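ok, trying the design again with the full structure, not the truncated one.
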């Protein structure tokens, strides 16, 4: 992927086999953060805006969408969604998160991105915790795979992650299938007291670059 960048404070744009993007997180007029799939041109990942509020409230209030994700607890009021959008549009230094809404044919249908970014206390590596949540209507159509691999690749190639982690509860059969079968990465059993996750996939930059999912 060709990359033009003036640093994290500037605009990063790229077009490759997997996606095109604008990553200008610290723009004085507001963040410019958008990633577009080249394989599925109807698919866009972008920073949320206030007009996403109604769709996000509907998606995050639907138990079918959030039953395996404790991080969505309490996001079932207009006030909570408004605060969430404000949080996700705020990019601190150093970068703490890079959340996006998932848009298909102009409709906001899910959320994703790196919900936590930080350095490992063990080896100082930069780690991003990735995830996706899709409205039930859009599952089973390849969008989850396409969105997640874009999020992972962008995390490594643009945001500078050394590792990307994905975790889920054992009951989340769809995510386990996506990670174990579709992407072919091996999980490790964990005991996650905060979110109750049972499995984690720790993907290094080297593993990702050697995989067929890399741009």
């Amino acid at each position: 992927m060709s990359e033009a960048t003036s640093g994290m404070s500037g605009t990063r744009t790229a077009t490759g086999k997997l996606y095109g993007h604008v990553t200008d997180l610290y723009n004085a007029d507001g963040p410019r953060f958008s990633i577009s799939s080249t394989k599925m041109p109807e698919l866009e990942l972008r920073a949320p805006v206030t007009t996403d509020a109604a769709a996000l409230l509907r998606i995050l209030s639907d138990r079918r969408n959030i039953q395996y994700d404790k991080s969505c607890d309490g996001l079932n009021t207009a006030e909570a969604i408004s605060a969430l959008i404000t949080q996700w549009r705020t990019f601190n230094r150093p970068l703490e998160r890079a959340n996006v809404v998932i848009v298909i044919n102009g409709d906001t249908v899910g959320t994703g991105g790196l919900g936590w970014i930080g350095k490992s206390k063990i080896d100082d590596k930069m780690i991003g915790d990735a995830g996706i949540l899709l409205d039930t209507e859009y599952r089973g159509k390849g969008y989850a795979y396409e969105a997640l691999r874009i999020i992972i690749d962008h995390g490594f190639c643009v945001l500078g992650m050394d590792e990307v982690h994905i975790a889920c509860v054992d009951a989340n059969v769809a995510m386990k299938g996506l990670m174990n079968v579709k992407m072919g990465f091996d999980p490790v059993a964990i005991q996650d007291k905060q979110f109750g996750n049972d499995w984690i996939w720790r993907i290094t930059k080297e593993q990702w670059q050697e995989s067929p999912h890399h741009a």
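Keeping the full-length input from now on. The chain has six helices and eleven strands.
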